[in-house]
Amino acid sequence: MLAKYYGLPYAEIIRKETGYFISRVYDELSTAGLSLVDSIFVLFNTAISLVVALGLAVSFSLKASSILLVVIPVIIYCSHRFTARIRTQSKYEKEEEATLRGLLGRALASYKVTRTFNLYDKIYSRIWRQLRKFNDTYYSRFKTSSIYQTLAGVSLSYAEAAVIVVGGYEILARRMTFGTFMAFMSAFWIVMAASKGLFEQITEISRVTASLERITEFGVNAVEKHVPHFDGIRLEGLAFAYNEKKVLRNIYLEAKKGDRILVVGPNGVGKSTLAHIIAGFLCPTVGELKTLPLERISAVIFPFHFVPGTVIDNVTFDHIDGKQELLSELAHEFELDEVLDKDPVELSAGQRKKVEVMMGLLKEADLYVFDEPFSHLDQTGRGKILGAILRRTENKMLILISNDESCSECFDKVIRLEASGELETSTQDDVVAPRPEELHATSRV
Ligand SMILES: Nc1ncnc2c1ncn2[C@@H]1O[C@H](COP(=O)(O)OP(=O)(O)OP(=O)(O)O)[C@@H](O)[C@H]1O
Ligand SMILES: [Mg+2]
């Protein structure tokens, strides 16, 4: 399930909360697995009792036992009708439960905000609404299961009454002794109890089947659009929207080896969205996108999440072979030597930002994308980060997003994203960019 999760398109990931995916990749799987094992054991036991008791009942009276032949087809018909409904309702129930888990995860993460701004009532009512939605789906499924079990139970009760009547008639007709009738009834009640257990299991199995279907369906319909690979970047007439919200439009951009581009623009204009598109995580709604494959891109884009583990666990990935020297150099330069063995959650915001950039620089790539690499950094930190980025990306492609335009002289092109979602480009032909070493030495940011 984890592998399936990482195979989903990024557009799917941002549509739901993390908790929703925890429910899909873990909770549903573990519950379905345990229920399946339970059901198999119970079914096995019930089936053995049923077969043995049925054999005994038939051996005592074939005629009385044949009543079951009338009841069983009715119950099988009901099973067929009800189990399909239970399966569909279980799927709705699981979806609402996963959404609830996502909401709950986010609400719990907002501990400080909830307390500081006294938002408990708001959170409570939002969770309550989702809980009710989940409860409604739970109730619908429970109702269908109950109706089915009641119908099956009533049919069995009729069968029981009919068997007693037939048995009585057989005694009166002297074809059966009272002792045989009692023995037959003992066996028959075991058949009844086993059949009841079997019908209860059928509803449980329908629920498990629904979960298993959700597990197999997970990620099947979410097909990632193919982005044509190219030796540079080419965006032509590109537009992008998150559902109904239009963010970028009419974007034309080309970059090749050696280009250094600075992307600036006001908050919320679409800079990070553009970075996601360039890295191939999001596909344009309109227009053409050509970019490098992800193996050749090193992108550090907001929001950035570290993998579980220490800083060193995060920065020693596959592409790091032969980069030990660079790692030590960057750790030293960014003053991260002391924190390499720490979990990133224990670091300050500025230190985390430095680790993010360090990760980006350690990957051997042809295109480097950095989204707001200077946020949370002090002046010295900014100079060091910019210097290291410029040094490492020499003769590569660099796209750097920043609200800070003071470093624009280090770039060949400055791209300004306008509030309309369009681009305005200016070249830096008249500006002589300082050499990275110079910049590092003087912290000219
Ligand atoms: N996951 C999302 N779902 C829906 N809309 C989104 C999503 N992410 C961003 N947006 C919207 O897209 C617009 C552009 O967001 P984006 O993060 O690209 O802006 P930005 O230019 O990087 O802003 P900033 O300077 O604040 O980082 C914003 O108006 C935002 O509301
Ligand atoms: Mg942004």
Q: Catalogue the unreliable spans.
A: 429-445
Note the beta-strand portion: 5-15%
Shape: elongated
- The CATH architecture of the largest domain comes to Up-down Bundle
Q: Hetero groups bound?
A: adenosine-5'-triphosphate, magnesium ion
Percent range for helical residues? 55-70%
- Highest-level CATH class of the largest domain: Mainly Alpha
* Secondary structural class: alpha/beta
Main-sheet strand order equals 5-6-7-3-8-9
The CATH H-level homologous superfamily of the largest domain? ABC transporter type 1, transmembrane domain
Q: What's the order of the H and E elements? A: HHHHHHHHEEEHEEHHHEHEEEH
End-to-end Cα distance, whole Å, is 45 Å
Number of domains: 2
- Strand runs, count: 9
Please work out how many helical segments DSSP would assign. Answer: 14
Structure description:
The chain has two domains: 2-217, ABC transporter type 1, transmembrane domain (ABC transporter transmembrane region fold, Up-down Bundle); 233-442, P-loop containing nucleotide triphosphate hydrolases (Rossmann fold, 3-Layer(aba) Sandwich), CATH 3.40.50.300. Helix content is 58%, strand content 12%. The chain has helices at 2-6, 10-13, 18-60, 62-65, 67-109, 111-116, 120-172, 178-217, 271-278, 311-315, 324-333, 349-362, 379-392, 436-442, and strands at 233-242, 245-255, 260-264, 286-290, 297-300, 367-371, 397-401, 413-417, 423-427. The protein has a six-stranded mixed sheet with strand order 5-6-7-3-8-9, sandwiched between helices. A three-stranded antiparallel sheet has the order 2-1-4, with helices on one face. Strand 6, helix 13 (379-392) and strand 7 form a beta-alpha-beta unit. Helix 7 (120-172) runs antiparallel to helix 8 (178-217), helix 12 (349-362) packs parallel to helix 13 (379-392) and helix 13 (379-392) runs antiparallel to helix 14 (436-442). It starts with a helix and ends with a helix. Bound molecules: adenosine-5'-triphosphate and magnesium ion (MG).
